[in-house]
Amino acid sequence: MRYSSLALLLLLAGCEQATTTAVLPQTTTDAAEPALMFDDFTYASAEALFANGWTARTETGHPGIAGAAWSADGISTHEAPDGAQFGIARMSSVTDGTGDGTRHTQICHARKYLYGTYAARVFFRNEPSYGPDGDEVIQTFYAISPLAAPLDPDYSEVDFEYLPNGGWGENSDSAMWTTTWETFQLEPWTKVNEFSRVPGDYSGWHTLVMNVSADAVRYYVDGNLVGDHTNAVAPEVPMSMNFNLWFMPKGADGSVGPIDSNESRQYQQDIDWVLHVEDAELTTAEVEAKVAALRASEQRHIDQVPDKGLAPYCGL
Predict the structure, then answer these.
(1) CA separation for the pair 179, 233 (Å, rounded)
(2) Which of 1, 52, 70, 226 is the most core-located residue (most Cβ within 10 A)?
(3) Cβ–Cβ under 8 Å, residues 251 and 86
(4) Within 10 A of 71 (CB to CB), how many other CB atoms are there?
(5) Which pLDDT score, from 0 to 100, does residue 26 have?
């Protein structure tokens, strides 16, 4: 095909205009940082802790010794002891083996956490601060949703549980348990979960990390993998983030329960900091680096995780 001189000039002009007005896609190297929640537990009092997003459980009932109280009386804040920085929260639970003589302890943060990284630095103890030793005591860091009905398929729970005196039907040796729950019912007791038990002494300071996704839940203590659970039990709905300290009742899943003594005894668990990073799976080293950076910038508490419009939950 042949073009006239005028047609050729018009064709070339059109091509030049198309080239010079084309808009190229923008590129950027700055990805948005995932939302996070961080608390360094630097509070002058427990009242200041509760005024800043934390709730103490007061609802009686499961788990623990029947008839026991759950109370804010066991929550306190302190200057940092050796091995911690800035400040700590402390849970103190007491028992004499009876319901009336038992006070369990739990603190909870908003029900808005699902996938991502959960991490905390905690101090576990093998012995009571006073009284006889030997109770099957449970020291924890976990996230949980309400159980809407027995065997509710949307129930979600991910747990670290340190049992210094044994329990859950095993021997009296100390062990770290990690459990991911699909669902359960209390009567008759029916559970659908995956769990891992790693024997060993976990007293002292430890960094606990949970990487939670729809595909798997992995648990780490000081960077060591201690539990790896499948998508069959992975969470499906937002959860509250919690710590609690309670005593195993006799007969719970084969447990021996309290020791044979009516003398009062107290167990304690300390919390240096807690971190949640939404929709991102961080290694323990990355968690500790992020905490160090937040502290270096004098961030003692930050909460960027969007509210999910769900009622607070500080029950189970």
Answers:
(1) 10
(2) 70
(3) no
(4) 16
(5) 35
Interval 76-105: pLDDT, tens: 999 999 999 999 999 999 999 999 999 999
Give, for 162, the enclosing helix (H) or strand (E): strand 157-163
Between CA 168 and CA 118, with CA 257 as vertex, the angle to 5 degrees is 50
pTM: 0.89
Cα–Cα distance between 182 and 305 in angstroms, integer? Answer: 24
Q: CA–CA separation, 190 vs 124, rounded Å?
A: 29
Range with lowest mean pLDDT among 30-39, 56-65, 204-213: 30-39
Return the DSSP state at 130.
Answer: B
* CB neighbourhood size of 167 (10 A): 25
Hey, what are 302's tokens?
């930050």
Contact 269, 120 (CB under 8 A): no
Average pLDDT over all residues of the chain: 91
Confidence category of residue 31, pLDDT binned at 50, 70, 90: low
